[in-house]
Amino acid sequence: MDLSAVCDLGKLERKKIKGDTSIMFAENPNENGRYNHVLEIRIDEDFKYEKINLSQFKKSYLDKYLYKKGSTNGADYTPTARITTPEKTLNNKIIKCLKDTILEYEDHKETKILEKILLTIVEDEEIILKDIEKNMNSKENYILTLVYNEKYVGDFQIFRDKIRKKSIASYYLIEKKESIGKKKHCSICKEKKEEVYGNANIFKFYTVDKKGYVAGGFKKLDSWRNFPVCKECAIDLELGKRYLDSNLSFKFQGRDFYLIPKLIYKKDMEKVLKILTRMDSNIDTQYENTEDLVFKRVERLKDYVTFDLLFYEEKNSALNIKLNIQEVLPSRFKKVYNDMSQVNNLFRNSTKFNEKFNLNFSFLNRLFPRKNYNRYFLETVDIIISDKNIDYKFIISYLTKYIIKGFNEEEGKYFYYNTITAYGFLIYLRILGVLFKDRGQMNIMENMYWDIKDYNSKEELFESFFKENMDFFNTPDKKAVFMVGFLAQKLLNIQYAKENRRPFINRLKGLKLNKKDIRRLLPEIQNKLVEYDANYYRDIESITSLYLLQAGENWSISELDIPFYFSLGMNLEKHINLNKKEEKIND
């Protein structure tokens, strides 16, 4: 991960801060949008408890709340806290924070005021707790803070000093001991600094509790050798991460990722961020998936900026990087989506069956369910966005499983949809240039419908079909398997028209077919068509036999491919009009 790009965001945030700089260390207690109510413990100028005041959370009051999370079992940095239970929060967060601050800053000019506030809260604790409970709804989440004589926590200099000092100390303190390197180079800005710190691990990539992460003979206090960061970069890194969390953290099919802009000319950063974060109702309502919306915004930018996509999972406050896609140009995002639109238009305009055809990245979720195949999902996304090469055997194996599932579940309800979507995805990978890269660029076909009236013969029709799909039908065995699938579907159509059932489907072995099965099925289909007095396809049977003959014994097609090509034959049957009167009666 390029942390300097995150620091660039932090530098911009730092420029926005006017006056007291303590606010840049404060956090948003309602970052997740679930803490929308604030309970204020109101104390008057004579240090008498007045009431609990309920107010709505205001983002403009972040400098007033001056919240910063402390340790799980200890107090936060200031007496502003998220409520778990009223009693625990009042005692372990508010009262304890006041006690800790008084002890640590006994000579501060505001310490006496804090002592009197603390005394009031302790004496009136029972009443305060009852008033807190009265103002709470069990279905809502609350923030608890102090207001003394109309002064909020952030109006106290003592808390501003504390949050600044403690925040900087957290960059170098490990178990209350200092991890500092003197006159060393910062790993981010590369400059030699008076001091570099060893615990400025804002993203929690590693932990000094595990030996394998620490250089210097496994001494925790030597962790600055692993990741030396100067004070300025540590602050910018924290501000940059906060900006990412608030503005550039998105969902990609349910997976969290940061979209990190990187520019050669830093002066354009504000312009880029404005485009990425500005809500536009004319654009935003057009897209059902978050990633579609985000990448459409990125498309509007020119190639003077690149983006890193950092996919991550947070566990126990640690950031687990699942995938880091680096330096993607806006033009690449545009191609990724333009090519997908081409495939969607191709299928939607082909037949009445495909009017609602919609290929998007949610297909990968179905192909690679997150529970067992998240790694493959992310690897495929990386290949698509980074313009790498996808292995045909890998992708065809999962597409085939997806098709077979559609065939065998719910009486084949989704068989057609699964097959057409799988083929659409394969075409997409090909025109995008990540499948069969060595074959060069493939031009997308004009339509997915073939009508006999446009050809002189059925042989010409099928040869035209195979030519237009030549990247996937480049050998006689693939053509033969497709044709047997095509004929099998014709027989099933006739059976259903005559008997309202499809008994021949049992001969397809749940689509787990091999070369021997393909050779077996052709004469079986021919015999059944004769039995039904419906053998309208003798010329197609001849074409199929010819392809089988040309294929010989040494097939190039693997057993992974056979169910895929057979299914294409069965389902693209709807896309091929042979214009036979008998067929129209029976189909």
Essential attributes:
15 strands, 587 residues, 5-stranded mixed sheet, 21 helices, 4 domains
Task: Explain how this protein is built.
The structure is a single chain. The protein folds into 4 domains: 3-19 and 167-235, no CATH class; 25-163, no CATH class; 244-342, no CATH class; 352-586, no CATH class. Helix content is 47%, strand content 14%. It contains 21 helices and 15 strands. It has helices at residues 3-16, 62-65, 86-104, 111-123, 125-134, 157-169, 231-247, 269-277, 281-284, 290-299, 330-348, 362-367, 370-386, 392-408, 415-432, 458-468, 476-499, 515-531, 538-551, 561-571, 581-586, and strands at residues 37-43, 49-56, 81-82, 142-148, 151-152, 173-174, 177-178, 180-185, 192-197, 249-252, 255-263, 305-315, 318-328, 450-451, 576-577. A hairpin with a 2-residue loop joins strand 12 (305-315) and strand 13 (318-328). The protein starts with a helix and ends with a helix.
